[in-house]
Design goal:
Number of strands: 27
Bound molecules: flavin-adenine dinucleotide, iron/sulfur cluster
Number of helices: 13
Length: 533
């Protein structure tokens, strides 16, 4: 801690809440500008050996501290979307599928970005984000990727298939070598073994998670990362900010107040929106924009699956996502895989249902069960499904948004949690993407099994998404958005937001590279620390 920060009773110059893509960029760039930084993260710190072997080890896979689960995968059910997001030191990078790609140029031309050419504005930040995250073309495709390429080629007659850049170290498989990325300043790394476990935590150390790049370098510059510490509220104080925290799990959950001159909120869409809403409700941030929680987007996403009758190592071999294909002008599809034995999330699937109201969807599931009862019951058997399943991730850049708000919850004994509602006149987020369903059915035919959709979709007609965006929209005035175009919270000098909540549109592709580039843009506008204040 600097003498200056300590002298004023502060813990740091900057507090950063959350250590995902936004928070890690903030930590490193602020430290490089000479600031003392403390990062508060609600999840645990992980080493490669700590991750579960399959996601059936729920206590080490899921993040649900009230139920004794302290893993990396959060699952938040909302009325209008089932949201999957990451938790831990490194945020979503611990659980993500490594894909680092940029959206199509037309995405940046949408009016929600505000004035200026954002593709140009972010160009060098994308370049730097790619370098820092070690993005390289995936050297090998999975078996289901080949099938997807064939199917879409058959449907469109053109080859729309692209190998993706991924943030993985592809040195000699399983062999450790000295830092290959940062001229010896980074950690030693081990080559990818193509085990397919990327989304339950890489057991090898081949994934370029944030604790191996941005956060690693930040900690070498003196940044303190404080895990298992949940931020509860933020309030202004004379010449700075106070963040109230508590231990994020356990029977005794000691509280503490952290003080700093400035705060960057990077708790991911759900974490950031909830923290700011809670602070406003507590009377601490009453001047926040009325648009807080508005314009939350699901990346117009739908998650489907197809399975084979028999397990085979070739279905699960490879990194979690290797490539993608445009099934039509606006629909991007990717094949996703878990390692064999990681069946847990497949419990959240049901036979693909027809579009329609609750009755139509229920009849459709029932019909599928009655037509082929033994086959479907066998498929529903929880054990061994990942070893014969290919998951299809469909994304669109089409418009559509919902609003997040705090709701009182009796089971939280007077507390609140996030709920969703649709703004007036707004259609629900896309759950039903016809071309993705057609592909799922064809894939199931080729694999010899069934086509599946998400349980949330079958029951509520709402999508599942791993790419929630928005909630703290960038805008020129507080009437229109929460932050300005440099991430500064309107009307609250010294308070910033840098994470997926500032992304203003559905990107139609995996968003982490864009979140990193936007965070680089925001942090580039923070001045160097003055020599003395
Ligand atoms: C299974 C899965 C696979 C994915 N695969 C890809 C992919 O291949 N490519 C891609 O681009 N994207 C992928 N994503 C999405 C990606 O992980 C997110 O878009 C990204 O992590 C969001 O970055 P962020 O900085 O907004 O927040 P996050 O990375 O979510 O980080 C937020 C952090 O803040 C912490 N936090 C929240 N609230 C608090 C609080 N109150 N106090 C303290 N800490 C708090 C959280 O624990 C978390 O660690 C995937 C997501 C999932 C779930
Ligand atoms: S395939 Fe296995 S070794 Fe390679 S990055 Fe994913 S989890 Fe790590």
């Amino acid at each position: 801690m600097s003498v200056e920060a300590e002298g004023r009773g502060r813990d740091a110059d900057f507090l950063v809440v959350g250590s995902g893509f936004g928070g890690s960029v903030a930590a490193l760039r602020l430290a490089q500008k000479g600031y003392d930084v403390v990062v508060l993260e609600q999840g645990r710190r992980w080493r490669a050996d700590d991750f579960p072997r399959t996601n059936m080890e729920l206590r080490r896979y899921l993040w649900a501290p009230r139920l004794g689960c302290r893993g990396i995968q959060s699952v938040t059910p909302l009325r209008h979307a089932l949201v999957l997001h990451g938790t831990g030191v490194g945020g979503g990078s611990l659980v993500y599928a490594n894909v680092l790609i940029q959206p199509d140029a037309q995405v940046f031309r949408r009016p929600e970005w505000g004035a200026g050419d954002w593709e140009e504005r972010l160009r060098h930040h994308y370049r730097e984000a790619r370098r820092m995250l070690g993005a390289v073309p995936c050297p090998a495709l999975g078996r289901t990727d080949e099938l997807l390429r064939d199917i879409v080629h058959g449907m469109r007659g053109t080859d729309e298939h692209r190998v993706h850049d991924v943030g993985v170290f592809f040195g000699a498989a399983g062999v450790e070598r000295a830092d290959p990325y940062f001229g010896g300043e980074g950690p030693a790394r081990t080559g990818c073994t193509r085990c397919g476990a990327c989304m339950i935590g890489c057991p090898v150390g081949a994934k370029n998670t944030l604790d191996r790049n941005y956060l690693w370098l930040a900690e070498r510059l003196g940044v303190r990362v404080v895990p298992e510490t949940e931020a509860l509220t933020i309030r202004p104080e004379a010449d700075g900010w106070a963040v109230e925290t508590r231990r994020s799990w356990g029977l005794r959950r000691p509280r503490r107040t952290w003080r700093a001159r400035r705060v960057v909120v990077s708790a991911g869409v759900l974490g950031t929106v909830e923290l700011l809403l809670r602070s406003r409700r507590a009377g601490a941030l009453t001047g926040l924009s009325p648009r807080l929680g508005d314009f939350v987007r699901t990346n117009s996403e739908s998650i489907l699956a197809a399975d084979a009758t028999e397990a085979d190592p070739s279905w699960t071999e490879g990194v979690a996502i290797t490539s993608g294909v445009h099934a039509d002008e606006r629909t991007h599809l990717e094949m996703v895989r878990f390692n064999a034995g990681s069946d847990a999330l497949l419990w959240l699937t049901l036979p693909l249902v027809e579009e329609g109201g609750t009755l139509a969807r229920a009849t459709s599931v029932l019909g599928a069960l009655l037509r082929r009862p033994m086959r479907l019951l066998r498929s529903l058997w929880p054990s061994g499904r990942a070893a014969r399943t290919g998951i299809i991730l469909a994304m669109q850049s089409t418009d559509g948004h919902l609003t997040l708000e705090l709701r009182p919850r009796w089971w939280r004994l007077g507390g609140t949690s996030l709920g969703s509602r649709l703004p007036e006149g707004q259609a629900p987020p896309v759950a039903h993407i016809p071309v993705a369903r057609a592909v799922a059915r064809r894939l199931a035919e080729r694999m010899g099994g069934e086509a599946w959709g998400s349980l949330h979709e079958a029951v509520l007609g709402a999508p599942a998404t791993a790419h929630i965006l928005g909630g703290c929209r960038m805008a020129a005035t507080p009437d229109a958005g929460v932050v300005d175009f440099e991430g500064r919270v309107h009307g609250h000098p010294g308070l910033y937001v840098a994470d997926g909540s500032v992304v203003p549109v559905n990107l139609g592709v995996n968003p982490s590279l864009t979140i990193t580039a936007l965070a680089e843009h925001i942090l580039a506008h923070v001045p160097e620390r003055p020599a003395s204040r």
